[in-house]
Write a structure and sequence with these properties.
27% of the residues lie in helices and 28% in strands.
């Protein structure tokens, strides 16, 4: 059993995505050197997820958008590459690849599992935009396409990074004329009724306008039911069928099985938390990022996005550090979020606002610009340097 030495404390961070990475870094600065920070993740590398769009369209390679989690060891963070196989939130313990871990505080930041197999045929028919392998396969498929039809698909109406499939469609639409191949049509079939609906009708309408102005065929309210890889055919719940030459998809999401088995999830299928402090119903156990569900006044949940995981991690790290000193945690998450919306040809919009505003989130979207794109490029570089 891994525990802290006598007189010291230990914090166990499950997951090395945005939330886990930020929380571990902040805790290391806030806690004395004798206290242990243990981060467990099944992958050896942290992937900067927003750059998967650039990998898919050929402006990044896979190595450029990843960093080894083992680099955190230099900061005094213990990194364990292992699959988390069991969590006991009452005891604040976890098992990973046969090893036992216990701590004074636990942060569950295991993200959302991608579930392409929830739609028959989907995995074999297309390329998963939300994985390094899928984005690289998309790049190769686009490079080999001289004429035909690319379909970007959201296989369920709720998914992380709500702007990403819309950005992907616009980046792909811009890609082919630059490559001298104008005989390719791009269509976006979405399970949801409109883009980024949680950001409000004005933002949703603006993003839809960007998509349609670029020449993309946009088809909302199309819930895919089955995919035929051999025939390259999509069938939707409304009876519509359509063909494709290249399929790029965002798969359904679900909470990791280990989280569900631990009794951490509620009726939403995700971990319910206090919306300000991201505490679970188990003392000393916090959850942040995509594995959580936070209902908003408008009836939709807070989007699953890295910007929220980052800010939640800052709050939780601060409060855990205070709690381990015997103090009452004073930090609170304010619901502020931001994101870029890439439209292609070196331009991006920028949206930001208060997602906790009532009765609906108060979000504004700036028009696409060169500055918007280059600010995202700067953020990518800063992220991969700062946290490692």
């Amino acid at each position: 059993m891994t525990v802290a030495a006598s007189g010291s404390k230990a914090v166990l961070v499950l997951g090395g995505g945005v939330g886990g990475l930020v929380a571990a870094n902040r805790l290391r600065k806030l806690l004395p050197p004798r206290d242990r920070i243990v981060l467990v993740d099944r992958e050896p590398n942290h992937v900067f997820q927003p750059s998967l769009l650039w990998l898919a369209t050929g402006s990044r390679d896979a190595g450029r958008i990843q960093r080894p989690l083992a680099r955190l060891e230099r900061k005094g963070i213990e990194v364990v590459q292992a699959e988390v196989t069991a969590i006991n939130p009452e005891a604040r313990t976890a098992q990973a690849d046969g090893r036992d871990f216990a701590a004074d505080a636990m942060i569950v930041a295991l993200g959302a599992d991608l579930a392409p197999d929830a739609v028959p045929g989907l995995r074999d028919a297309g390329h998963n935009l939300y994985t390094v392998a899928g984005a690289a396969a998309t790049r190769d498929a686009l490079a080999g396409l001289r004429a035909g039809r690319v379909v970007v698909l959201t296989a369920a109406p709720a998914y992380k990074c709500p702007a990403a499939p819309y950005e992907a469609a616009m980046l792909i639409q811009a890609y082919f004329p630059r490559a001298g191949r104008g005989e390719v049509r791009v269509d976006l079939y979405a399970a949801e009724p409109g883009p980024m609906g949680v950001a409000g009708p004005a933002v949703s309408a603006a993003v839809r306008g960007m998509v349609e102005a670029s020449g993309i065929g946009y088809h909302p309210n199309h819930q895919v039911t089955v995919v035929d890889p051999a025939e390259r055919l999509l069938t939707f719940a409304n009876g519509v069928t359509t063909s494709f030459d290249v399929l790029v998809y965002v798969p359904p999401h679900r909470a990791p099985e280990v989280v569900r088995a631990a009794g951490l999830t509620d009726s939403s299928g995700w971990i319910g938390v206090d919306r300000r402090r991201f505490e679970t119903s188990f003392p000393g156990v916090h959850a942040i990022g995509d594995v959580t569900s936070v209902p908003l006044a408008m009836g939709k949940p807070l989007p699953k996005a890295g910007v929220f995981a980052h800010r939640q991690a800052e709050v939780v790290a601060h409060n855990i550090a205070e709690a381990l000193r015997g103090e009452v945690g004073s930090a609170a998450f304010d619901g502020f979020g931001k994101c870029w919306v890439e439209v292609g040809n070196g331009r991006a919009g920028y949206g930001a606002g208060d997602f906790y505003a009532e009765p609906t989130p108060d979000v504004r979207l700036r028009a696409p610009s060169l500055l918007g794109h280059w600010s995202k490029v700067w953020f990518e570089r800063h992220w991969l340097w700062h946290w490692f």
